[in-house]
């Protein structure tokens, strides 16, 4: 398989082999599994709660706010690790330190804002 299109043919062949393996495994699983459906097994089930009423339910906004705050802290942690490696290199010490304090200041302002809006209270 030489030439420009030879590498694409190789990728297509490997993709076809991968799809065939996955499809074969799923087909064999479907043929060998036991199938005994009962009304209890066909009932909708989620998180240990039996379905009651409509399928539409409201969620409180504070759960989403806590999720956003978690994302903010995760991004903060992701930026702290590379900062620690760059801070150790020569010539970047004070500049990197000041940049990280500015970044942490923005994070602190966001947390302070959430605290002042009473978003961080769990009732």
User: What form results from the Cα inertia axes?
Assistant: flat
Distance between the termini: 66 Å
- What's the total number of strands? 0
- What's the Cα radius of gyration? 27 Å
Average pLDDT rating: 81
Helix content: 55-70%
Low-confidence stretches: none
User: How can the largest sheet be summarized?
Assistant: none
How many helices does DSSP assign?
A: 3
What's the helix-strand series?
HHH
Percentage of β-strand residues = under 5%
Assign the structural class, choosing from mainly alpha, mainly beta, alpha/beta, alpha+beta, or little secondary structure. Answer: mainly alpha
Description:
The protein has 123 residues and is mainly α. Helix content is 65%, strand content 0%. It is built from three helices and no strands. α2 packs antiparallel against α3. It is flat. The model has no long low-confidence stretch (mean pLDDT 81).
Summarize the entry for a quick read.
This protein is flat. α2 (61-87) runs antiparallel to α3 (93-116).
Question: Would you spell out the secondary-structure blueprint of this structure?
Answer:
Elements: H1 4-32, H2 61-87, H3 93-116
Helix pairs in contact: 2-3
List descriptors.
single chain, 123 residues, mainly alpha, 3 helices, 65% helix, 0% strand
